[in-house]
Amino acid sequence: MALIALLIAIWLGIIALRRRRETVPGWKPLAWGAGVGLVLALVLLLIDLDAQKMATRLASPLGLAWLVLFGLALDLLRNRRWWPGGLAGGCWLLLTLGGNAWISACLLGTLERSVPPAQARSWDAVAVLGGGTAMGDNGEVQLGDSGDRLRVAHALLREERTPLLVAVGSGFYGGPARRDLAAETARVWSGWGTPPEGMLLIPGVVNTRQEIIRLAEEARARGWKRIAIVSSAWHLPRALALARRFGLPADGIPADSRARLPSASPAFLVPGGAALHDTQLWCTEVLGRMVGR
Predict the structure, then answer these.
(1) What pLDDT was estimated at residue 40?
(2) Three-class secondary structure of residue 6 per DSSP
(3) Which is deepest, 19, 75, 185, 224, by most CB within 10 Å?
(4) Residue 168: beta bridge partners?
(5) Is the pLDDT of residue 181 over 70?
């Protein structure tokens, strides 16, 4: 209700300001309506926790841009400026849908649910695709957003379901600042008690296609019959498709699942940065699979 009252207040306020500027009579009732809507929205914010969460989202740069687009689209369409109004409205709708937590969770869910169950209980090697680490301000390695990959793989070693952990990947950007993601992963595993002989590092590859090609080469050279690939659940479908393409016998072990639907709350009607990020992940995976990367 607070969001509806606020949007109506913005709409009435824009119309009132335009009519006053153009000296069109009847702007005062609209201005009063905008004021009442604003007061109603403020009252609801004071008594409703969900409305308070919504206010926090609206106060962010993304929320403010969403409100401005809404007001701009309404004003343009009201003045029958169809093309710019339609463009502004389309951008507002795209932002609304792309930043919706329920929609982004459903999109990632279509990827995560497509991962087939592992066919084996133990493997010659367990490979972790790069991207699970980050560098802290102090220069120390820490777990990144996808750090669950490292935990899941280490648990398989601890349970004696594999004798070898394989860390794959390097940072995408070239030059002396390129990060060795494989070495960073190994530093984390070493801190968890993994011995050097229990790890194999494959640096120098910067995307999923290159990672799978190198793993396939290592599998043929070392005689691995079956390996497990640990990656984020939403990333595994693309990785496993590449594994089949390059003849790598691999099971997928999901980590970092993100497709849980959030609880119902009107606050999620306002687009959020986390949901936009998850929608972008889905777009990246779909486009990457289309181009074979």
Answers:
(1) 60
(2) helix
(3) 185
(4) 202
(5) yes
CATH 3.40.50.620 residue ranges for the chain:
118-258
User: Which one of 3.40.50.2000, 3.40.50.620, 2.60.40.10, 3.30.540.10 gives the CATH number of domain 118-258?
Assistant: 3.40.50.620
CB 9 within 8 A of CB 34: yes
CA dist., res. 228 & res. 154, Å (int): 12
Q: Any residues with CB less than 8 A from the CB of 228 and at least 6 apart, and which?
A: 118, 120, 123, 125, 126, 127, 156, 162, 250, 251, 252, 253
> pLDDT confidence of 123, banded at 50, 70, 90?
very high
Please tell me which residue, 155 or 134, carries the higher pLDDT value: 155
Contact 212, 202 (CB under 8 A): no
Paired sense of beta strands 125-128 and 227-232, if any: parallel
